[in-house]
Amino acid sequence: MSNLAPLLEVDNISLRFGGVTAIDSVSFEVRPNELFAIIGPNGAGKTSIFNSISQVYRPQEGDIFWKGESIMGTRPDKVAQLGIARTFQNIELFPQMTVLDNLLTGRHIRMSGSFIAGALWVGKAKRQEIEHRRKVEDIIDFLEIERWRKHPVALLPYGFQKRVELGRALAMDPELLMLDEPVAGMNLEETEDMARFILDIRRELGISLLMVEHDMGFVMDIADRVMCLNFGQHLAEGTPAEVQNNPDVIAAYLGSTDLTVT
To answer: Residues of 77-102 as b/e, b for ≥16 C-beta within 10 angstroms?
Structure first.
């Protein structure tokens, strides 16, 4: 894995909002078929990095490269079309729409053709919709949500709603999937299910993952490499064991170097 060119390179980016520095000269890379995790206390700048990669925010300094090409200044929808998809801290689904229809919204960046052809459901538009629905049904099977496919999302348990949001991101056909706190608010059983699906996404679908998460046990169990941020700065990076036992990381979380992060 170390000999492969990185998919994503974040090169010395800094992001400021007025006099507040959210990200301060941070660099890292995500390699093909890797699960790279970002950890850090609240306010460390983790979600700001996601928003910078998605180009919702534009860092004032540094650069971000996708497969060797800069994506700085690219529209967020174009970033998604390049193969970078994401989930969100808070569930951002259409609650009155069915699971199936919510997943189909993830296919919009892969759709083409005129509005009229789509409305009439003829020719290329018809063939495309059949293919998009087949793709979504595959995701429904993969995430084991068949029994919910025709249910409005609002009626689903919380853990399944998080699973649907994961499915919508998968529907975008990403090469890199960014997961923003994928197990936040979940119970133990839901967390274990999500861990299994995330590992299957990498193993069976060959998708690289960039993850922000507060659950340290979850991160240390499944990540290949971990980076810790603190006050927007790169604090430590390495294997889960290396980061977990780094005195600076322990101090950032617990205020003491006499304890081990668990």
So the answer is: eebbebbbbbbbeebebeeeebbbeb
Look-up of token digits 């709603």: 161
pTM: 0.87
Within its chain, how far is the Cα of 186 from the centroid?
Answer: 17
pLDDT digits (tens, 9 = 90+) for 202-260: 999 999 999 999 888 899 999 999 999 999 999 999 999 999 889 988 888 766 544 34
Query: Token digits for 160?
Result: 């399944």
Residue with tokens 């053709």: 113
In the chain the beta strands, taken as DSSP E runs, fall at 8-17, 20-30, 35-39, 61-66, 69-70, 84-86, 176-180, 208-212, 225-230, 233-238
CA 171 to CA 110: how far, in whole Å?
Answer: 9
